[in-house]
Design brief:
By secondary structure, this protein is α/β, with parallel strands linked by helices. The chain has helices at 7-23, 40-44, 48-57, 72-81, 95-103, 116-127, 143-150, 168-177, 200-209, 235-239, 268-274, 285-296, 298-321, 342-351, 374-387, 397-400; strands at residues 59-61, 110-113, 133-138, 154-159, 182-188, 216-219, 244-249, 262-265, 333-337, 354-356, 366-370. Helix 9 (200-209) links the parallel strand 5 (182-188) and strand 6. The chain is globular.
């Protein structure tokens, strides 16, 4: 898949670069702020030009980003919105109405966040007051747990099953056993970092089995990359009036990770409880216009989806042929079992200018790798084969049933 470098894209990127230069950023800028590996402090001391050069030279497979960036339609919409940069009460591109129409709900069922991470922290603040606890699995996307700890709340973390699925019966039992102390349940579906889905029948089983006044936050950041027919979005449960909060993001398939835009869809009563804790004024005019246009450009999303699914099949098959087991993936990343601790391996990849995912305890011998461009994936597989010797053909967890 190729992405055109047309005039609108150059104008937008050039304008951003000019703004950065005008702001006077120099030595001390860390363009690797999203990477969590060793060496970040050293990079922070680099002159800007060296930091940019190092960043551009690396295959960036650590943070589950869209490697192609936003489509031209979105670039054009964002470029046009720059004229509102000096205004507070600017037209916002109709972003909330666009989201509501996209999901077939009312605007009152939508709340914005600076990325879906803000939706997660907003949910914590709303529902973990008074010592309430969040129930979820480990490992998963742990922003919910981190924020709970920061706000002096707590989490009940349940282990995954042997096949790395989320244990829904155990979750149901845990919620019932701790009912008075549970603020909400967290499901990341598909899960990050395992990339495995919870079938819709199990989501329904959970909702039907726990007390109906316990909210369930379902993080669908990777929804667009699923091709497993057992999976369904949880938005229909919102329409039924269940206490379900569906979190979505524009960071993945649309390619707006650096712009920060996410949202939640939930019943009005739930949204009304969350709204006092929203920081929506921190979301800029440019990304609101881009987000509204992104929802309309379904063709661009389909290109990214098709490329991602094909590439993840190709690369995981190549790793399996090399003798290394991969978990069945339904996202824009995958996990491969490397058979040794992942932290030193991350550093080995970094020396080869390939950035891969951080450790996810207790799965410390699994390496998470994002799907990048064709060139980035070729660099990854070449580096993998240099670091790891070939073994007999491996099976996937799906092969074993």
């Amino acid at each position: 898949m190729t992405v055109k470098n047309n005039l609108s894209r150059r104008q937008f990127v050039g304008g951003v670069a000019a703004a950065i230069g005008y702001a006077g950023f120099g030595p001390g800028v860390d363009l690797f702020a999203q990477s969590r590996g060793a060496g970040q402090a050293a990079r922070a001391k680099m002159p800007l030009s060296e930091a940019v050069a190092e960043y551009e030279a690396a295959a960036k497979l650590a943070n589950n980003e869209n490697p192609f960036g936003p489509p031209d339609s979105v670039i054009k919409a964002m470029t046009g919105a720059f004229k509102y940069a000096n205004r507070y009460g600017y037209p916002d591109g109709g972003i909330v109405d666009a989201i509501a129409e996209h999901h077939g709900v009312k605007p009152e069922n939508v709340i914005l966040g600076a990325g879906s991470s803000e939706i997660l922290t907003m949910t914590d603040t709303t529902f973990l007051q008074g010592g309430k606890k969040v129930v979820g699995v480990e490992p998963t996307y742990n922003t919910v747990y981190q924020y709970a700890t920061n706000s002096k709340a707590d989490a009940i973390k349940l282990p995954l099953l042997k096949d790395y699925q989320q244990d829904i019966p155990l979750m149901i039992h845990t919620v019932k056993a701790n009912y008075r102390d549970v603020g909400f349940v967290y499901l990341c579906n598909p899960n990050n970092p395992t990339a495995i889905v919870i079938p819709n029948r199990e989501v329904k089983q959970l909702l039907d089995s726990i007390p109906e006044d316990v909210p369930v936050l379902i993080d669908e950041a990777y929804h667009h990359f699923v091709d497993d027919p057992s999976y369904e979005t949880a938005v229909p449960y919102v329409k039924e009036g269940r206490q379900v909060i569906v979190a979505r993001t524009f960071s993945k398939i649309v390619g707006l990770a650096g712009m920060r835009l996410g949202y939640a869809v939930a019943p009005k009563t739930v949204i009304d409880r969350m709204r006092p804790f929203a920081m929506s004024y921190g979301i800029n005019a440019i990304v609101k216009w881009g987000g509204a246009e992104a929802l309309r450009d379904t063709a661009a999303q389909e290109k990214v989806r098709t490329y991602t699914i094909n590439m993840r099949k190709k690369v995981t098959a190549e790793l399996q042929a090399h003798g290394y087991e991969t978990l069945p993936t339904q996202t824009n990343f995958f996990m491969v079992h490397i058979g040794r601790e992942v932290v030193p391996v991350i550093e080995e990849f970094k020396k080869k200018k390939v950035l891969v995912g951080r450790p996810f305890p207790p799965m410390t011998q699994h390496l998470r790798v994002s799907i990048g461009t064709e060139d980035e994936m070729a660099r990854f597989t070449a580096a993998f084969k240099e670091i790891f010797p070939a073994k007999g053909k491996a099976s996937t967890a799906a092969d074993r049933g």
